[in-house]
Design brief:
Number of domains of chain C: 1
Shape of chain A: globular
Largest interface: A-B, 55 and 51 residues
Radius of gyration of chain A: 19 Å
Oligomer: heterotrimer
Radius of gyration of chain C: 13 Å
Distance between the termini of chain C: 33 Å
Strand order of the largest sheet of chain A: 8-1-9
Order of helices and strands of chain A: HHEHEEHEEHEEHHEHE
Structural class of chain C: mainly alpha
Strand content of chain C: under 5%
Strand content of chain A: 15-25%
Distance between the termini of chain A: 44 Å
Helix content of chain A: 25-40%
CATH class of the largest domain in chain A: Alpha Beta
Helix content of chain C: 40-55%
Number of domains of chain A: 2
Order of helices and strands of chain C: HHHH
Chains: A alpha+beta, B mainly alpha, C mainly alpha
């Protein structure tokens, strides 16, 4: 543990020195360090993963993000009340104007996640890079996090499962939710839903590092009006929306 | 004649009761095994209604466990002799109910085999984790308290321990209320009124359980209760029922006043199908008004009326908890205020919940645990209230 | 290894789950990759299979594969 940290500190110092001369803006240093997360290293709080979802680009009738999520994570795709759904497409009708919008709803990866606060065994936790996960080795299946989540983002595994994906362990009696495709993100890839949305040509889901001022997502959040769902709760979700 | 033959076979009756309790517990354990084998798919619970019937039973028992201690507290903290005589029974009942409630809560977990993790990994920000400490502390304190009462040499310590138990039980019931009070986003919960509401409810439910058990014990031993003491204790039950009604009313009135909460109140109090029926008929009429009549109406208030009133209060408590826990989750979470939402995951829809046999059996199994502990311990320990003939203070 | 493999796995598991440290030596997927049977790419199935065989012999409950995949990843993905 301490060895790893020393390695990382050494690495950070070296790269800081290397980049100090080159960078024009201080943000540049942040950018380069932020992306440098070798597979064997611990994640750092210099990164905060998030999404910007443009609901005006979310096509009616398209559920590619949901399908991609199910395929990637080995979910059955069933929609019974006892089936897990990590991402769902929500249809919103403005009660005042009657305008209809669509958006994908998933774990909002809050900065102050209520699920983490209430979990008795600390199985719900937030990684340094902002991804909220369930350590299923510690989860006792009390479902208090599901009561606490303002977004109904979590599912409880109600039945025995077989044929889980190697990268996505899941099991009966524990709570689960969107992992922000942590196994892909750690390899430097996009989330499955964001990739599927681009592939379908909609580009409604933009995934990236909110802490890096030069990232596409950060630039866009600076440029357009965005909203967080239930912003009144003050949880600062990493998933943000525009066009609602 | 009847009393004579009862006395003759008393031991057999006792073992029959033990066997009955054992049978109920065994059925609860079988239900739990079935649930663990197949997963929660065999219960009525789902991703919308995540807490169901087991939680209704468990929370009733935990709240009543702390409430029943009130009888002891009035004796120890406020030095009332008739209540002091009842303190050992109250302590035993508290331990029995708490054990029953926790059994249900633990066996309903998705991974009951991992319960040890709850002890080895402790999240200091979790109310659930605080409650684990509160429950274990309660067992210890009440155990010590019983020791000071039943062991003559320890008697001097009884008063300070009684006070500690009193403080602990107030905190514990608040903790139970906080489990719900700290849920930030749910319309039904997330209110600072819940801890005091739970304390008021615990007073009534605990005393109701106490009345039932005490009357059964007196009848078993062919004794009659001192009418003066019965009158005091039944009036106290009446006051507690009124107190509970007051807090329940305050909770709903607050919600009715807030525009964002009126849809939820409309659901719970009028349009929500089973929930308003259970609330008005179950909790308000059968569980509160009728017991009040049985207690206070001139000409009523004898032992049979008090026992009936107590049983009705217990029935009403289950109705109220069902409405509070399951109705509170059935109403759709307000994720997008100002929008009508719909999705494949039940957004904007009333959640459906049909209690299944295994989860109800599990709940009764918990009651069975409480019952077994009670009848065995009142037999081996001297807990029948002995009132001094002249105790009229 | 017979005596301590669970400790190595547990240590690695905590680092991977909580800190995102991946691709290290003692990952469960890494174990399965080498030890899975050549016949059906699995570490479970019969007492001939690597994990199951020993765990049945030692009468120790094998909890890992209730959640984790017991199949070799490469083939598991191809066979889909």
């Amino acid at each position: 543990m301490s060895g790893t940290n020393l390695d990382r500190r050494g690495f950070l110092t070296k790269s800081s020195v290397a980049f100090a001369g080159l960078s024009i803006a201080p943000g540049m240093i942040l950018f380069d360090l932020a992306q440098a997360h070798p597979l064997g290293d611990a994640v750092s709080s210099k990164v905060r993963w998030g999404m910007l979802i443009d609901s005006s680009k979310c096509e009616s009738g398209c559920t590619d993000c949901v399908t991609a999520c199910n395929t990637e994570n080995g979910l059955s795709g069933g929609v019974k009340a006892t089936d897990s759904q990590w991402i769902r497409k929500v249809e919103l009708k403005d009660l005042r104007t009657g305008r209809t919008t669509f958006l994908p709803m998933l774990c909002q990866h809050c900065e102050q996640p209520p699920c983490v606060d209430v979990c008795p065994t600390a199985a719900s936790f937030k990684r340094a890079d902002g991804i909220v996960l369930v350590d299923k080795h510690l989860c006792i299946g009390c479902r208090y996090c599901m009561m606490a989540c303002p977004y109904k983002a979590r599912s409880f595994v109600h039945e025995n499962l077989t044929d889980q994906k190697t990268d996505v362990p899941r099991g009966k009696g524990t709570v689960e939710s969107c992992t922000l495709c942590v196994h892909r993100v750690d390899k430097g890839q996009n989330t499955a839903c964001a990739d599927a949305c681009s592939k379908a040509g909609h580009n409604a889901i933009l995934f990236g590092n909110l802490n890096d001022p030069e990232s596409e997502i950060a630039k866009r959040i600076r440029a357009v009006a965005t909203t967080q769902i239930r912003a009144d709760l003050g949880l600062n979700p990493g998933i943000q929306y525009e066009g609602i | 004649m009847l009393a004579k033959s009862f006395a003759r076979y008393e031991t057999r009756y006792f073992y029959a009761l033990v066997a009955l309790g054992g049978l109920i517990v065994a059925m609860g354990l079988m239900a739990m095994h079935y649930m663990e084998e197949h997963g929660h798919i065999v219960t009525g619970m789902n991703n919308q209604i995540v807490w169901g019937m087991p939680h209704v039973f468990a929370i009733f028992m935990i709240v009543a466990a702390s409430g029943v201690l009130n009888v002891a507290s009035i004796g120890s903290v406020f030095s009332k002799a008739p209540y002091k005589a009842r303190a050992p029974l109250a302590g035993l009942l508290a331990i029995a109910l708490l054990a029953g409630g926790l059994t249900v809560l633990m066996l309903d977990l998705g991974r009951p085999d991992r319960i040890i993790v709850a002890a080895t990994h402790f999240n200091p920000t979790s109310v659930f984790a605080w409650n684990i400490v509160l429950y274990s502390g309660m067992f210890t304190l009440v155990g010590l308290y019983l020791w000071t009462m039943l062991e003559k040499r320890m008697n001097p310590w009884s008063a300070p321990l009684g006070f500690a138990v009193f403080a602990w039980r107030i905190i514990l019931t608040s903790g139970t209320g906080m489990i719900f009070a700290f849920l930030v986003a749910r319309q039904a919960y997330g209110s600072a009124l819940l801890p005091p509401l739970f304390i008021a409810l615990s007073f009534a439910w605990g005393l109701a359980v106490f009345h039932v058990v005490q009357s059964a014990m007196y009848a078993w031993n062919s004794q009659t209760q001192d009418p003066a003491i019965l009158k005091r204790m039944k009036n106290l039950l009446g006051v507690f029922v009124i107190g509970s009604l007051y807090f329940v009313a305050a909770y709903h009135m607050t919600n009715l006043y807030f525009a964002k909460q009126t849809a939820f109140e409309h659901f719970i109090l009028s349009s929500g199908g089973i929930y308003p029926v259970l609330f008005w008929a179950g909790y308000v009429v059968l569980g509160s008004l009728l017991p009040l009549l049985l207690i206070f109406l001139p000409g009523l208030g004898q032992i049979k009326c008090v026992v009936a009133a107590s049983l009705l209060v217990i029935l009403g408590s289950f109705a109220l908890l069902y409405v509070f826990i399951i109705g509170g989750q059935a109403f759709p979470l307000s994720i997008f205020p100002g929008f009508a939402a719909s999705s494949s995951f039940g957004d904007g829809q009333i959640g459906s919940y049909i209690p299944s046999c295994p989860e109800i059996l599990l709940g009764f199994g918990g009651l069975g645990v409480a019952f077994l502990i009670t009848i065995v311990s009142v037999r081996v320990l001297d807990s029948l209230p002995h009132d001094l003939p002249s105790s009229k203070n | 290894m017979r005596k301590v493999h669970m400790n190595l796995l547990k240590h690695q598991r905590d680092e991977t789950v909580h800190e995102g440290i991946r691709g290290k030596k003692y990952s469960l997927a890494g174990c399965v990759d080498c030890h899975a049977s050549v016949k059906d790419n699995n570490v479970l199935g019969s007492n001939e299979h690597f994990c199951q065989g020993c765990h049945v012999y030692a009468a120790v409950k094998l909890d890992c594969f209730e959640c984790h995949s017991s199949k070799r990843k490469v083939t598991a993905e191809v066979s889909k």
